[in-house]
Amino acid sequence: MDNYVMANIHSTAVIGNNVKMDDSIEIEKEVQVSDDCIFGKKVFIGKKSIIGNKVTLGDGCVIEKKSTVGNNCILSNNTVIEKKCMVGNNVKMGEHCVIEKKVKIEDDCIFGDKVVVEGGAVIGNVVKIGDDVVLEKDTVVLDGADIPTGIVLSAGHTFPDGTTSKAKYFKSKK
């Protein structure tokens, strides 16, 4: 429990060893933070969330209640993980991403800046998502997919599904 002030950390939170943060952080009740994490300024972690080992949260990151962030993740500045999300291990997210409630992200994924993943989506292992992408509600992205910059993936689809036509998945931003 190094380098932070207890003023904004609930008494029931469990903080691992060698965690670096400043006094602008807020950690709610029953949060578990593992070892060797680095948190930027004005980070918020909601109640009953779990943060894995060696996680970096940039300035202004928000992890809402009952969410899990796996080991070795980097969430850049002003990224928001809404309630009841699961982020796997070795996930890297760019700045200003929004992951809406009840999203599941598997391991080894890379997100660009300003990615929005709407509620209920599932993202497989080793997925790469470009900047300014929107994955609409209940989308499923299969292992190894590469979604280019600026795409909106239509609600409720599985991508890719073995077909050669991508037109049914993508639509332009309005």
Automatic annotation (TrEMBL):
Residues 35-125 form the Mannose-1-phosphate guanyltransferase C-terminal domain. It comes from the Archaea. Gene3D superfamilies: Hexapeptide repeat proteins (2.160.10.10). InterPro entries: GMPPB_C, Trans_hexapeptide_repeat, Trimer_LpxA-like_sf. PANTHER family: ACETYLTRANSFERASE. This is Mannose-1-phosphate guanyltransferase C-terminal domain-containing protein. It comes from Nitrosopumilus cobalaminigenes.
